[in-house]
Amino acid sequence: MSRFLSKEAMKLAPYTPGEQPKDAQYVKLNTNESPFPPSPKLMKAMTRAEELKLNLYSDPTCGRLNEAIARHYELKPENVISGNGSDEILAFAVRAFCGEGKGVAYADITYGFYQAQTALFGLEAKRIPLREDFSLNVDDYMDFPGTIVIANPNAPTGMAVPRADIQRLLEADPDRVVIVDEAYVDFGAESCVPMIYRYDNLLVVQTMSKSRQLAGGRVGYALGSAELIAALNRVKYSFNPYNVNRLSIIAGAAAVEDEAYFRQCCSAIAGNRAWLTGELEARGFAVLPSCANFVFAKSDKIDGGALYRQLKENGILVRWFDADRIRDYVRITVGSMEQLTELVDALDRLLEEV
Ligand SMILES: *Cc1c(COP(=O)(O)O)cnc(C)c1O
C-alpha cells in the first residue's frame, strides 16, 4: 500500500463494480442495467438549449427533479432528496444516522456497497445471516439498537420481504431508522413508500438505474419524513451541494414522468424473467424466486465459478461472487429476449460438454 495513504484510507474496503469490458462485444448480463433505451420523452427533454447552460451550476435543491418525483409518489418535495445515483444517497444516510455508538446492521448476503460505506465511515456493522433458504427474518433485527439497512428485494438473491414485516420493524423501535433500499422494487415487490407519512423513522431509497433505464445518468433518491430528508441534506451540503448535474436533473424528471414507458419496460422484464427461469429450470438449475430484474441460479452440473468463466469465453457476462454460501450461484441480469436466447444457446453448448 502507498506510503501516502492516511490511516483511515488504509482501512477502506472499496466496492468492486461488475466488469465493464472494452475489449470485446459481450452480451452484458452482469450489472442489472436495463436492456432498453431511455424514454423517448427524455431524449426530447435533453435539448440543446439546456446543454448550453452547462457554464452555470446545477440547481443545488434539484427542484425540477424532486418535484417530479414527489408528484409521482404523491408526496411533498420536502419528502424527497436526489443524488448522484442511490449509492450517494445511501452514503448520505449512513453518515447522517450512524457513527460512534450508533452502529448499522444488514444481512450477511446483500449489496456489497453497504460494507464499503461502513468502512468509509469507520462504523461498526453487524452482519445478520439470512435463513438457510436466503429469506430474511425480520425478527433477527428486532432488538438491534442502531440503523438497519434492508435491500428489498435483496441483491444478489432477488428475494423480497413483505411490507408488513418492515412495518413490524418500524413499530418495534420508533427511535431507530430503517433504510429500505428499493433499487429493484418496481420489478414485483411491495414498496414501503405508502408508509412514509405514518412512520417518521422510515427512509426508502430508490434509483433510476434499474427500472427507469438511466444507469449512466446516475440518478437516485430517497423518500422519507421531512426530518430524515433534512438530515440527509445536512450531509449533502457538507459534501457536494451540486450533487446532481443539469442534464441528469432533466433526464430524471422526464424518466419519472413517462409512466407508460416505465410500465412497458417493467412488464417486459417480468415476462422475460419468467421465460428465463423456466429455461434454466428445464436445464437442471435451481433458481431462487426473484422479484428483481435478475435471477440467482445454480446448476446441478457445473459450479458457479466455472460457469461464469465458460460463459465469458462464449461472449456472455454474468456476475459471480466468490463468497461463502453463494459460491455455487451466478447472478444473471434479465436482458432482452435476444440476449437471453443467446445465453440459453450458450448454456446448451456448454452443458453438453460437461
Ligand atoms: C444497483 C443498486 C444500487 C445503486 O444504484 P445506483 O446506480 O447508484 O443508483 C443500490 N442498491 C442496490 C441493492 C443495487 O443493486
Distance between the termini: 42 Å
Main sheet makeup:
7 strands, mixed
Going by helix content, strand content and strand pairing, the class is alpha/beta
Bound molecules: pyridoxal-5'-phosphate
Number of helices: 12
Beta-strand content estimate: 5-15%
Fraction of residues in helix: 25-40%
CA-atom Rg in angstroms = 20 Å
Number of separate strands: 12
Mean pLDDT: 96
> What does the overall shape look like?
globular
Side-by-side strand order of the widest sheet: 2-8-7-6-5-3-4
The low-pLDDT segments are none
Order of helices and strands, N to C? HEHHHEHEHEEHEEEHHHEEHEEH
In short:
The chain is α/β, with parallel strands linked by helices and 354 residues long.
Per-chain topology:
Blueprint: H1 7-10, E1 27-28, H2 40-45, H3 48-51, H4 63-73, E2 80-84, H5 86-97, E3 104-107, H6 113-120, E4 125-128, E5 147-151, H7 163-172, E6 178-181, E7 202-207, E8 219-224, H8 226-239, H9 246-257, H10 259-282, E9 285-287, E10 294-299, H11 304-313, E11 316-317, E12 329-333, H12 337-353
Parallel strand pairs: 1-11, 3-4, 3-5, 5-6, 6-7
Antiparallel strand pairs: 2-8, 7-8, 9-10, 10-12
